Amino acid sequence: MVDRAVDPLTVDTAPAQRSDHALMLAVRDGELDALGELFERHQGPLFGFLCKLTGDRPTAEDIAQTVFQRMLKYRHTYRDEGSFTAWMYHLARRCAADHFRRSQSAPHAADPADLNEHIDEAPHAAHHAATRDDHALLHAALARLDHGDREVLLLSRFQELSFAEISGILECSVGAAKVRAHRALRTLRDIYLKLQNRPAS
Predict the structure, then answer these.
(1) CATH topology of domain 112-201
(2) Mean pLDDT value of segment 189-195
(3) What are the distances in angstroms from CA 143 to CA 37, 42, 71?
C-alpha cells in the first residue's frame, strides 16, 4: 500500500471573505445581492451611531433604512479608491440632515429624566451599578454636546474611523477634523465632570 502525501495545493479552503470595498464595487457593478452582506455587517454599528446622534430609536431605524436605500440608488457614485465605511457615514449624515429638514426639528439626544439620580445614589453600591451610572452620565454628557461636536466624537471615538475618513465625511481637512475632535472631547469631559458634581481640573 502506497502512502500518498497530501498536496497542500489540492486541499479545499473556505472562500475568502470579500472586503466591504469589494462588496460595494460588486453592488455598483450590478451584483445587488452583495448589499445584503454589507447590511448584515454594518446595520448594527450604523444604527448605534444614528441612535446616539438623534437620541431617538425609531428615528434612527428610519434613517438607517434610508441609508441602505440610498446606497442602492447611488451605487454608481461609489469610487474604486473609496472607503466604504466613510462613504456610508457620509450618506448617513446626509440622510439625517434631510430627515430633520423635512420634520423641521433639530436632532437631540434625550437626557435622563433626573440627572441628580445618578449623582445621589448610595456610595457603596455594587461595582456594576457604578459602571451603569458612569455610562448613564456619559450618555447624558454626550446628549448635551451640540450636534457638530457629538457627530465628530461619535465618528472618531465610537465608530473608530480614521481622521482621514472623518475629514472626508465632514468635508474638512484632516487637521481641522483632529482639532474639532479634540475640542469636542474636552467639552464632553467638562460636562461629564459637572454632571458628577466635580469641578474640572
Answers:
(1) Arc Repressor Mutant, subunit A (1.10.10)
(2) 89
(3) 32, 23, 28
Kindly give, in sequence order, each residue whose CB lies less than 8 Å from that of residue 68, ignoring residues fewer than 6 positions away.
35, 38, 39, 43
Pairwise CA distance, residues 60 & 47, whole Å: 6
Cα–Cα nearest to 180, from 168, 172, 190, 169:
172
User: Which pLDDT band holds residue 91 (cuts at 50, 70, 90)?
Assistant: very high
Domain ranges of the chain: 18-108, 112-201
Residue 127 has pLDDT above 50, yes or no: no
Long-range CB contacts for residues 100-108, cutoff 8 Å, separation at least 24: 106/147, 107/53, 107/54, 107/55, 107/147, 108/54, 108/55, 108/56, 108/143
Tell me the three cell numbers of residue 20.
Answer: 466591504
Question: In the CATH scheme, what is the code of domain 18-108?
Answer: 1.10.1740.10
Q: Which residue has the higher pLDDT, 189 or 103?
A: 189
Instruction: State the amino acid at position 62 in one-letter form.
Output: D
The answer, yes or no, to whether residue 167 has pLDDT greater than 50, is yes
- 90-101 average pLDDT score: 90
pLDDT value at residue 118: 33
Residue 109 to residue 147: CA distance in whole angstroms: 9
> Which amino acid makes up residue 72?
L
Task: Write down the pTM of the prediction.
Answer: 0.68
Give the span between the Cα atoms of 39 and 62, in whole angstroms.
14
